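User: quick one - fold this with iron/sulfur cluster bound?
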Amino acid sequence: MKILAKYGKDDLATVFLGETSSGVLVEFVQSLQPPLDRSEKWVLIVSTLRGCPVGCLMCDAGSYYEGKLSAEDIMEQIEFLMEYYFPTKKVETKKFKIQFARVGEPAFNQNVLVVLKKLSCYENLLPSISTVAPEGTDVFFERLLELKNIYYPGKFQLQFSIHSTDETERNQIIPIKKWSFEKISEYGNKFVSDGDRKITLNFAVAKNYQLDPKVIIRFFDPAKFLIKITPVNPTHNALKNSIASDVDLQTGMPMTHKDFVEELLMSGYQVILSIGELEENQIGSNCGQYVRKHLIEKDKFIQAYSYVR
Ligand code: SF4
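Assistant: Sure. Structure tokens for the protein plus iron/sulfur cluster:
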């Protein structure tokens, strides 16, 4: 891996731009969750595609697509970070999390499954897949279920990014054909066995999105699914598409959609309000951000990416 640029702070989050040995440009992240230090929790966020063909309205990674990364290209991101921060190559951290969530929809790339199998030798590893559930990826998800059962029982984190409970609006925000709520629910019911982590339904909550708790209650079992509320991060595309975050950055609670959270809590759902570290917006390491996009944007007057020169 040849490192072309590095932005951020080692004790919070760092974005790396690199060229793999096959000559492919990749962007990947390491981050901590203060006050925990690296010996307690360490999170790697790696790319799985070269750009992304989905083009979610709030995401800067979806502006172009040049193909899949090989298993080696994905492994090089992980191995580079492991050697950079743990020169002995022994990852001495209690919670070692790898998210396949930087650039690219992971379900479009079967090589992610190859990497997951390779990584199963790390006992402290908690892998995490974040997906929009694209249509035509059933084989990926069936194999993922098998892999989880064999190698990661009780320690696999699966997240479906939903954003709206209205299917028409969801299709506008995530403009590809996707699994219906019913299909996600059926899969989730199969996926979560005794001792497994619940599946996360993630909502990056915007003021004008439709969020109806009745839809969640109708389709998703609170014993198998939990709800995660996140802000819409400051990205070039969120700005261009006039998507205004609804989340109060002090409390993590949505403002327009407070009732959505309260009704779900009353109905027995676990709801996580996740605002993360706001300085990560300046570093460009948060979800939906993409440093390469920022570097080529002409209009750099955005409340983010200030670490990127
Ligand atoms: S949010 Fe994920 S699926 Fe959507 S464009 Fe960005 S990388 Fe692709």
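One thing worth noting: The chain has a mean pLDDT of 92.
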